Amino acid sequence: MSLREFIEAERAVGDAVIEIEEEVSTDHEAAALMKKYDGGPTLVFKRLKGYRHQAVAGVCGTRDRIYRAIGADHDTYCRRLAWAVENPKPPEVAEAGPVFEVAEPPDLESIPIFRHYERDPGRYITSGIVVARSVDGSFQNASIHRLLVLGKDRLAIRIVPRHLHAMLEEGSMIGKNLEVAIVIGSHPAVMVGVNSGPEYRVNELWVANSLLGGKLKVVRCPDVGLEVPCDAEYVLVGEISTDETAEEGPFVDLTGTYDIVRKQPVVRIKRVFRREGAIYQALLPGGSEHKLLMGVPKEARMYEAISKAIPKVKGVRLTPGGGCWFHAVVSVRKQVEGDGKNAALAALGSNPSLKHVVVVDEDINIDSSEEVEWAIATRFQGDRDLIVVNGARGSSLDPSSDQVRILTTKLGIDATIPLDKPKEKFVRAVIPEVDHVQEYR
Ligand code: MN
């Protein structure tokens, strides 16, 4: 189940793939096109100035494509993701794979890595899945990290204090560099699985395999033995050194604003493997694909948590205006007064980065910011339906939060219809069905 096969299948869906035949520069020009078509079709860059290879962008840029990739739909994706996280399945280990068709000494200059925004310090790999094995060899981890190109064989890697960070620390305690395989160009279900947030020591590629119905095949990398998807486009093999850091950033994050510059670890690349005619996979920072890959797996976790707090949750959205990170809308079938507030509290508790949540009844389309606003306008009273929590742990990505202690104020907005008022006052008027509505143009 490769990226190529997925794109081929998407062509059948109609306008989901655009081929760009003209020569495009990887310096800002490709990024401008990604921005222009953000949240729309997958782009295939056929000719990139100065490079032999093609690139694709925006593969996970719409919810429908993500749903198709993981074999789910609008109504089932939360449960499917939650199931895969609970039921990770080891993939078949193949003897060989197309990803090793070509082996080369490291030369990051020869890979069409894009430069995106105005103040970016250089070219960034933004879809790289970093695969590593724990120091004791007992488990493998996979996570996506932004990687700034520092030279032919060096990258700065942003590592937030999560799993890879813990593994690197375990290595540094015994003076051991962490071997990594950086996978670029994967089936979108692999991207989603890697972002699905299972517990420490669970291999995210196993979650991806469950999402793919057991069809993922992995192969062991020469030199390091790390298991990687056998039909990935590129694998960069190297190690994260415990003794070298470099400045990383500024980089545009989910909010569309620049993150700060930090000292971050350096990855030294030793070998590059790739398929014949490798296709580089690009992802626009702060774009739809970035937001959905971060947000959709979080929605699944929130859905499960809120479902434990109230009986009938209909849907959960991390909305694009909030970067699919800070703002959520939850729709519920309210059964008793207080369900709305409990849903809001469960949402805030289940996602530490969440800042504002709106709870609505199931007649509201949670993908429509206009309908959500309408619910707030007609069903919400600030003195009665608002929950305010001061001084909660927030996200460093929010420039309005307390940037020193990373504290934020969280709001829950209960925009459900109050049960002690007549419901007919709150429901949208409808025009009765008629036999035939003529089209005029
Ligand atoms: Mn992990």
Description:
By secondary structure, the chain is of the alpha+beta class. Helices cover 25% and strands 28% of the residues. The longest helix is centred in the last third of the chain and has 22 residues, at 288-309. The mean pLDDT is 96. The protein has helices at 3-11, 29-36, 63-69, 77-86, 163-173, 188-194, 204-211, 288-309, 339-350, 369-379, 382-385; strands at residues 17-24, 42-48, 54-57, 92-94, 102-104, 124-125, 129-133, 140-144, 147-149, 154-157, 178-184, 217-220, 227-229, 234-248, 262-274, 279-282, 313-318, 327-332, 356-361, 386-393, 407-414. The chain is globular and about 70 Å long. Strands 5, 6, 7, 8, 9, 10, 11, 14 and 15 form a 9-stranded antiparallel beta sheet that branches. It has a 5-stranded mixed beta sheet with strand order 17-18-19-21-20, with helices on both faces. The chain has a domain at 289-420: UbiD C-terminal domain-like. Helix 4 (77-86) packs across helix 7, helix 6 (188-194) crosses helix 7 and helix 8 (288-309) crosses helix 9. Bound molecules: manganese (II) ion. Manganese (II) ion binds at residues 141, 143, 163, 200, 204. The site of manganese (II) ion (MN) has 5 residues, from strand 8.
- Assigned CATH superfamily of one domain: UbiD C-terminal domain-like
Q: Give me the CATH fold name of one domain.
A: UbiD C-terminal domain-like
Radius of gyration: 23 Å
Mean pLDDT level: 96
Bound molecules: manganese (II) ion
Q: Using the 3D structure, state the CATH architecture of one domain.
A: 3-Layer(aba) Sandwich
Note the beta-strand portion.
Answer: 25-35%
Q: Compute the number of helices.
A: 11
**According to CATH, what is the class of one domain?**
Alpha Beta
Helix content: 10-25%
User: What is the count of β-strands?
Assistant: 21
List unreliable stretches of 5+ residues.
none
Terminus-to-terminus distance: 45 Å
Oligomeric state of the chains?
A: single chain
Main structural class? alpha+beta
Largest β-sheet summary: 9 strands, antiparallel
* Shape category: globular
